[in-house]
Write a structure and sequence with these properties.
Strand order of the largest sheet: 1-6-5-4-3-2
Number of helices: 2
Number of strands: 6
Helix content: 10-25%
Radius of gyration: 16 Å
Distance between the termini: 29 Å
Largest sheet: 6 strands, mixed
Structural class: alpha+beta
Order of helices and strands: HEHEEEEE
Strand content: 15-25%
Length: about 150
């Protein structure tokens, strides 16, 4: 079973908080006071010829419906559409190349649409690896939880 990225993030923050309170070592790879936290780098089209660049979007800039979808992912459902949670195959080649089954897609409701609409959250297996698309996979933004 895949642990949704937002649950893993809460666990990591709890461990970091506990380490800071008792003065122990923090999580491996965590930023220190002398090392500023860095946002994930965008995936460049130069790295993958023919692919578009993946941008980023601050979590607070997502539409309310995307937050609803992320909350459902965190809870493990139930989802409004049978396609939600299915494997996203990355046929467009925009997201970083991964083995099949790495990405999963979820519907983000589109107000006024009489079908699923064009908006989706695509999750990867890494912690905090959620991508948002408002244009049905034409472009993606990695959700930045640090802003």
């Amino acid at each position: 079973m895949r642990i949704p990225p937002r649950i893993a993030r809460v666990s990591a923050l709890g461990a970091l908080s506990a380490a800071l309170l008792v003065g122990g070592p923090a999580l491996a790879g965590a930023s220190t006071a002398s090392e500023p936290a860095r946002a994930p780098a965008a995936v460049s089209a130069v790295d993958r010829p023919g692919a578009a660049e993946v941008g980023d979007i601050c979590e607070t800039k997502l539409p309310a419906e995307a937050h609803d979808t992320l909350d459902l992912i965190e809870k493990g459902g139930p989802y409004p559409y049978p396609q939600d949670g299915t494997v996203f195959q990355n046929r467009e080649g925009i997201l970083p190349d991964q083995n099949e089954g790495y990405y999963h897609e979820y519907t983000v409701e589109t107000p006024g649409s009489d079908d699923r609409g064009a908006r989706r959250i695509v999750t990867g297996d890494k912690e905090q690896e959620d991508y948002y698309t408002a244009d049905h996979y034409e472009s993606f933004d990695l959700v930045d939880y640090s802003c």
